[in-house]
Structure prediction request, 501 residues.
Amino acid sequence: MSVSTAAQPGRVDLTTIPSPVPNQIDGQDVRAADGRTFAKVDPATGRVICQVPRSSAADVQRAVDAAKRAQPAWAATTVVKRGDILRQIALLMREHRAAIAELVSKETGKSKKDALGETDAAIEMGFFVAGEGRRFYGQTTTSAVPNKSAMVMRQPLGVAGLIIAANTPIANVAWKAFPALLCGNAAVMKAAEDTPLSAWAFGVLAREAGVPDGVYATVHGYGEEAGAPLVEHPDVAVVSFTGSCEVGRWIAQTAGRRLAKVCLELGGKNPLIVCDDADLQNAVAWALGSAFSNAGQRCAAGSRIIVFDAVYDRFKQMLVEATGRVKVGTGDTDDYGPVINEEQMTNMLAAVERARAAGAVVVTGGHRLTGGAYGDGYFVAPTIVEHVGPHDEISRSELFGPITCLYRVQGFEEAIALANDSPFGLTAALHTQNLDRAMTFVGRIQAGVAVVNGGTYGSEPHMPFGGLRQSGNGWREAGTQALDVYSDLKTVYINHNPGRA
Ligand code: NAD
Prediction:
């Protein structure tokens, strides 16, 4: 196995979009085994950008076979060395950040500015994980027996199957690929069907950085055709999935049957509470960002805004006014772009219509944006809905679009109860100037992330991210805790002077 960190700058070209976008298996660019492809559509225009391999079990088999062959040698390199190679990927990503952001922008329709922000977050994740190669802490401890040492160290799992959503595509790749590889696993990435380009770019740079053939593969295709075989494959030791609850549930059952490790990062219906003593200006700014940034396509989107009765009318007026100033489009001065595909758009607008038919009031939005620059793109107006009950469909199911609901509560107890009354438990925010209220919220909110006087979204590479209940299954991505997903423990005893033990 050759392991080289000496990348040669300038050899990589990420500016020409390949069509079909290749699968990257065992160091080779390849088509799907049966040659089938599907069209990747630009969500901002409805026009085809490129063809993508419609991979199947045969392609997954090939990638897993190569991964299984390559993994032992990769695991035998030191974790410091693996960290060096991952750092090289991050450095190459930084060198090519504009080109990567261009690909992200192209495949998602989000602005170049937002795509750059996301790319930079992915790069930072690379640097953070690379640094973990110099720590990779285990534990040394005592033994009851003289002349005996006891310690705990990490060991890799084998082949990791990584399956991601399309909402923040390059960040989603980075959040899984970097820690999976650092821990000494080989990894097969099933890219999201709507975002093949950034996943391809990562694969190009991983190869360029010196990740050995076979150790990292990218397989494109639909979930049921290319994702499911990865979940079912007996040689895939850990499945790490970011996506919907429905698919997550199936993955947990399917991989669970063969007792594979499963990390699920699923949906959210995240509450943002505005108390009567909140700085309303700040609360409105964060509510707006939480509800609408990235077109609401965030697991951490603020889709339930819970407001104290005393400030409800004023807050609502300010929020509606601010929403009126939200600019939708693909430019850097726009606030958000299209949603990822036509089906998602149709589904979310249908959910708003069902709520309206059941008595909800759509305060603003609730429709597709058409005409002029919107053309055939999948643009949805920023939407605020009120007069919905806590158990209505729109309060409980994730829409994954720029749609939020307003709820009126009498006070803190009702706010906390409503915030916690959800199938999900990913993130939550509270706006108050009262420290006791803030700390009581932190203590009682049932969520993986609690924020005071900020948004429901925002995750940093060194901080664990994940949720309770149907938002996940207890694992955390990012942070040192991500290493727990991709490694297992080994308890070690050494009798260093057995004769005197
Ligand atoms: P999705 O579940 O439809 O698809 C996600 C991925 O799973 C895609 O790559 C898809 O091809 C694949 N997939 C689909 N069916 C599969 C199957 N049977 N077997 C294996 N793979 C399969 O989700 P989506 O609508 O694309 O993404 C949005 C969801 O992702 C939302 O629920 C959102 O909250 C969630 N999400 C969660 C986090 C988090 O960290 N908790 C982050 C981003 C997105």
